[in-house]
Automatic annotation (TrEMBL):
SUPFAM superfamilies: PLP-dependent transferases
UniProt keyword annotation of Transmembrane present: no
Pfam (any one): Aminotran_5
Keywords, in A-Z order: Aminotransferase, Iron, Iron-sulfur, Metal-binding, Pyridoxal phosphate, Transferase
Family that this chain belongs to: Belongs to the class-V pyridoxal-phosphate-dependent aminotransferase family. NifS/IscS subfamily.
Cofactor: pyridoxal 5'-phosphate
Domain of life: Bacteria
InterPro entries reported in the protein's UniProt record: Aminotrans_V_dom (IPR000192), Aminotrans_V_PyrdxlP_BS (IPR020578), Cysteine_dSase (IPR016454), PyrdxlP-dep_Trfase (IPR015424), PyrdxlP-dep_Trfase_major (IPR015421), PyrdxlP-dep_Trfase_small (IPR015422)
Annotated protein name in UniProt: Aminotransferase class V
Amino acid sequence: MAVYLDNSATTQVAPEIQQTLMEVVANYYGNPSSLHRIGGEAEKLMARAREVAARFLGVKPDELFFTSGGTESNNLALKGAAFQYQSRGKHIITTQIEHAAVYQVCKALERDFGFDVTYLPVDHNGVVSVQDVEKALRKDTILVSVMHVNNELGSVQPVEAIGRLLKKRRKVFFHVDHVQGVGKVPLDIKGSGIDLLSISGHKIHAPKGTGLLYVREGIRLYPLLHGGGQEGGLRSGTENVPGIVALAKAIRLAKENEAQHIGHLLKLKQILLEGLADIPGVYINTPLDKRITAPHIVNLSCPGIKPEVLVHALEEKEIYVSTTSACSSRKDQVSRTLEAIGLEGPRLHSPLRVSLSIYNTVEDIQYFLKTLRDILPHYQKIMRV
């Protein structure tokens, strides 16, 4: 019995999306830029997919630009805005716990292009203060980038309140990394005053290599890719029509079933948290306040045990979890996010992340809890960080 609990790293492609993907691969193989009928059919299908995604996200179709995933969308949002509007100023505000696809972009903008970036702290729950955002604003600030849901802790940032604040500063753009929030934490994109927003397909049961960037009407970005001028000149390159259609369907399914899916995830998370509380030597790092945490992520520590040892021990029982972000889990370094919330010592060096999907069951959680309870005493005796 394989129990996959690493859904913040990637998700399995939904069966109905697999079917759609194969149908498009087989029947819509034309280049959407071609003038003939086969190309035109692909272009029309892609246009319908854009309309579907826009309708369920509550935005206009011409405000969506398809990309290869969250990393590209984040790079395009930050670099595109920074390069396009640097004449206004070269100051950017973000947080200390952003995903590497934002954090490292900011570091590159500082190092290579002379931008000044403010990295705001977070509280012990991993939540940034709106007041800190306001205090950090300067005359030369051009961009604020704050993720919606943290990929390690599951903490939810006050993006609506930040958006209201920034509406008063028309020359400051607001970017939100929404990769972990789609279908799990509702977000009114237009109502929150968001200017730029990133989404990744493989976090919502679409295939890898799919994503999009929402760009509010009227905003111009400097493109990262130059070529044939696809995606309104913002993202050149022949479009991935099967992936785009699959992404649009994944967004539709996530939004249509959002309330049901959230309810299911909350039920599983509650069982998980209650079970972990009964296991000696386990500490919960994720916020317990439901108002500021997503329903699908639980971060925990088992001080005294190297996390990679537990990952492989659980793997032997066909349970699959991770240590930190999948983008950083193979690097020998502590979590920047856990450091930011004040963890230190053995607890900082022993994190596990359990992340749920709609396909997980109560039985999955019970099996994980039983297995963890069974194997922990052995490793607590023989292992030390």
